[in-house]
Design a protein that fits this description.
- The chain is an alpha/beta fold and 192 residues long.
- It has a single domain, classed as NagB/RpiA/CoA transferase-like (Rossmann fold), CATH 3.40.50.
- Helices cover 29% and strands 23% of the residues.
- It has 4 helices and 13 strands.
- A hairpin with a 5-residue loop joins strand 2 and strand 3.
- The longest helix is centred in the first third of the chain and has 21 residues.
- GO terms for molecular function: 5-formyltetrahydrofolate cyclo-ligase activity.
- It is an enzyme of class 6 (ligase).
- Keywords: ATP-binding, Ligase, Magnesium, Metal-binding, Nucleotide-binding.
């Protein structure tokens, strides 16, 4: 049986998915320009030479222009690959070739690296459904990034990419949920 918190999360996720689904093409394009500029600025600010990031699905904040910039500017980029055991493998990928992963999400094609490959990055960029003012992250319910972040002994800065209206006063929290150090939105970078 699902807990009350789990049910609240499910309802909030459904609302957030719907908000993303109804964004216009113009709103998405404008947001993508903002995400890209802020992700580049964040990478430069942290002097990151290696970044873990995700390949965005159509209804997610678009990370692809940022990834293209990273590839073009020699920033080593690790991209996640979901495993059935709930962990993430990583691959460098070429920024062009991808496949459909476990849950229909895009994943890179490239040399498969194990879960510990992320330990060597300077900056981690994660997806999220919402973040609250304390940095608590609510993901999409599968726990992959919570497990990854929770298992790291020395975690570099972690930033979630969300739309402005997904930065909330509070999000429901469960014991396994992991916070982030900041968010990147189309209009700003917020550090907690």
């Amino acid at each position: 049986m699902l807990s009350e918190t789990s049910n609240i999360k499910r309802a909030l996720r459904a609302e957030l998915r719907e908000r993303r689904r109804i964004l216009t093409t113009t709103e998405r394009e404008e947001a993508t320009a903002g995400f890209t500029a802020h992700l580049i600025a964040l990478t430069s600010q942290h002097k990151a030479r290696s970044v873990a990031c995700y390949l965005s699905a159509p209804n997610e904040p678009n990370t692809r222009p940022f990834l293209n910039w990273a590839f073009a500017n020699g920033v080593r980029t690790l991209l996640p690959i979901t495993r059935e055991d709930g962990l993430l493998d990583w691959a460098h990928g070429d920024g062009e070739t991808e496949t459909e992963g476990l849950f229909g999400m895009p994943e890179p094609v490239g040399e498969l690296l194990g879960p510990i490959a992320i330990n060597d990055v300077d900056l981690i960029i994660v997806p999220a459904a919402a973040i609250d003012g304390t940095g608590m992250r609510m993901g999409w319910g599968r726990g992959y990034f919570d497990k990854t972040l929770g298992s790291m002994q020395k975690c570099p800065p972690v930033f979630a990419v969300i739309y402005d209206d997904e930065l909330l006063d509070s999000v429901p929290r469960e014991v396994h949920d992991e916070p982030v150090n900041g968010v990147v939105t189309p209009t700003r970078i917020v550090t907690f």
